[in-house]
Design brief:
By secondary structure, this protein is α+β, with helices and mostly antiparallel strands. The protein is built from 3 helices and 4 strands; from the N terminus they run E-H-E-E-H-H-E.
Length: 109
């Protein structure tokens, strides 16, 4: 039987005044550390986009955060940890376009 998760994708663009290296360092360091503290978080991944190869995409990367339910997702972002995480976004992003999707795992290790 396949497992279903609610997933939040944060599709984001780095701040114009930051180098790619500064952006990655903040996201993979400070921000990832904060994200991993979200209550109810089941999985978390960061996906960097090579802007030279995929210039038309217009974003520098996206994150994937898995939760058991949409209620758990909303509770996580309403928590103190979630508010701290969201407050950190302007420190390295100029734009974030979040979406919520339901992932149904069809082939999974």
């Amino acid at each position: 039987m396949s497992r279903t998760y609610v997933k939040r994708l944060g599709i984001l663009k780095r701040r114009d005044d930051m180098t790619h290296e500064q952006f990655v360092a903040h996201w993979m360091g400070t921000h990832a550390t904060l994200c991993k503290k979200l209550p109810g978080l089941r999985r978390y991944s960061v996906n960097l986009v090579d802007r030279e190869r995929f210039a038309a995409f217009g974003y520098d990367g996206f994150s994937e955060l898995w939760f058991d339910s949409e209620e758990d997702l909303h509770a996580a972002f309403a928590s103190a940890e979630g508010r701290t995480l969201l407050a950190d976004l302007p420190n390295f992003t100029s734009r974030i376009d979040p979406i919520i999707s339901v992932e149904t795992q069809m082939l999974w290790p």
